[in-house]
Amino acid sequence: MKKFSLTLITIYLFFAITLVSIPSILAQCIDQPFPTQPNKNLAVKCLTVKQPIKKLKSQVSNNTDMLEIRFDCAINDETICAKVKSTFEEAGRIITSALTLYTQIIVNVTFREMMSPAILGSARPFRSMPLKDDDGIERLYPQSLVKQLQLTSHPEFAPVDIVADFNSLVALWFEGDPPITSKQVGFLELILHELMHGLGFVSAWGDYFPKAATPEVNDFIESENSNSKAMTVFGGFQEKAFDKYLVIFPDNVTTSSYIKELNKFADGSAFKNFDDFYVKFIASPQYLVAKEIYNHFVTPKSLVFKPSVSDKEEDWTYLETTLNPFERGSSVSHVDNMMYTNTSDFLMTYRQELGRTLNDNIGIGGNYAGGAISYKLRLILESLGYTVNYPSPFPSNETDPVTENSIPTSLSTRNFAYQSSIAYIVGIVMIINALL
Ligand SMILES: *[C@@H]1O[C@H](CO)[C@@H](O)[C@H](O)[C@H]1NC(C)=O
Ligand SMILES: *[C@@H]1O[C@H](CO)[C@@H](O)[C@H](O)[C@H]1NC(C)=O
Ligand SMILES: *[C@@H]1O[C@H](CO)[C@@H](O)[C@H](O)[C@H]1NC(C)=O
Ligand SMILES: *[C@@H]1O[C@H](CO)[C@@H](O)[C@H](O)[C@H]1NC(C)=O
Ligand SMILES: *[C@@H]1O[C@H](CO)[C@@H](O)[C@H](O)[C@H]1NC(C)=O
Ligand SMILES: [Zn+2]
C-alpha cells in the first residue's frame, strides 16, 4: 500500500480567513469521520458563516462539564456502557476545569467490538479548518478550538467537534473497579490522552514519502478547469495549529520555516494522479529538504514545542523523536516517552503503562497541582489558543521533576502490578504490542 494518502477535492480556491476574521467564500475543510482510520480524510468545502461577536463573559457558564458526550454504546452490557459513559463525563470535568471553554465541545463517542483486541481506539477532531495565523501562514485548526476563538466569521461547523471510537474487546479498567491488574488499561487516562488529540494536540508532519517528512498532503485538489478526470492540482503542504510552535533543536529553526521551501514544489501545478505527484516529489530538490527534516524527527531531543506564552527553556516540551524509523501516529504528535514517562507530563507519551491507573501515574509524577493536565501541557493548550486555568502553585516552583530514580517512597511500597516492559502504543491509531 502507498505510504501516503491524498484527498480529492472538487474545487480549488484560495481562502482568506484570518484570526482577525476577514471573511472568505469557501474554505477547504478536512473531515476525519473515522478516528481509527486517520488516513481517511475527506475534503469538504466549507462556507463561511458570519457570527456576531459574543461577549466572552456571558458565555461562561457554571457547567462543570463543557463536553457534551453523544454516546453510542454498541455492546449488550449496560454496566460497561454506563462505566464508559461516566468515564467520558469524568474526562469532560477534568478538561472543563483545566480550560475556560466558552462553547460546549460535542464529542461523538462510539464503543463497540472492533475487528481485534489489538486496536484500542482513538479520538480525533472531526473537522479541521484553515485559518491564517498571525505569522501569515495558513494552518488547519480543530473545530473545537475554532469554536472557542469567537471569530466574527469562520468556516461552517460540523455537527460534532470530536469523534471517538473505542474497542470493547480491550481489557479496560474503570475508576471504582477492583484494583487494576497488570494487563488492564486505565480507561480514564486513555480517554484523556485521546481527547487531547481531539482538542488539537496533533501534528500534520509524517513520513508520507520514504525517509522524508512533510505535512500530510490534504489539499491535493482536482483542477476546476480540467476537463480530464485525472488532472489534479496540488494546493501546497499545510501544517496544523500545533505545528506553529515546533522548533528543531539545537538549530532553533521552526518547522514552519521549511514550508515555504517545500511548497516551491509545484505549488498550484497539475498532476496526472497521485502516483505522478509522488514520483515527481521524490525527484525534486524539495525531497532533499524533507529528508533533512526527517533526520531531525528520528534524532532524540531534536524537536521541541516552544510555548507562545513563555521564553523559558524549562517550559519547552521535547516531542517524541526517539523512534527510528519514524512511526506515524507515535512520533512528533506525542511528548518524548523516555523523558516524560514517570513524570507529571506522562499523559501525552505514546505509550500507556499497563496496570497503572491515572491516579497512580499522577502520584508517580509527583502529585503536582493540576493532576493529569500538567503545567507544560497547559502551556501547549494555551499556545494553541485555548484559555487555560493554571493551578496554583505552579509546578515549576515546586520540587524538581520526579525522575525514575526518585519515585516517591510512599508509592514504591504500593503494590503495583507493574509490567513495565509491556505497554500499549497509544498512537493516533493505537495498536497493542505484539507481546499481547
Ligand atoms: C451559577 O451558579 C450560581 C451559584 O452557584 C447561581 O446563583 C447561578 O444561578 C448559576 N448560573 C447559571 C447560569 O447556572
Ligand atoms: C455520531 O454518532 C452517531 C451514532 O451515535 C452517528 O449516527 C453519526 O453519524 C455520528 N456523527 C458523526 C459526525 O460522526
Ligand atoms: C538555540 O537556543 C538555545 C537556547 O536558547 C541556545 O542555547 C543555543 O545556542 C541556540 N542554538 C543556536 C544554533 O542558535
Ligand atoms: C518508569 O517507572 C517504572 C517503574 O518504576 C520503570 O520500570 C520504568 O523503567 C520507568 N520508565 C522510564 C522511562 O523511566
Ligand atoms: C516562583 O517563585 C519565585 C520565588 O519564590 C517567584 O519570584 C516567581 O514569581 C515564581 N514563579 C511562578 C511562575 O510562580
Ligand atoms: Zn496519542
UniProtKB/TrEMBL annotation:
Keyword set, alphabetical order: Signal
Signal found in the keyword field: yes
Signal peptide location: 1-27
Protein name: 14024_t:CDS:1
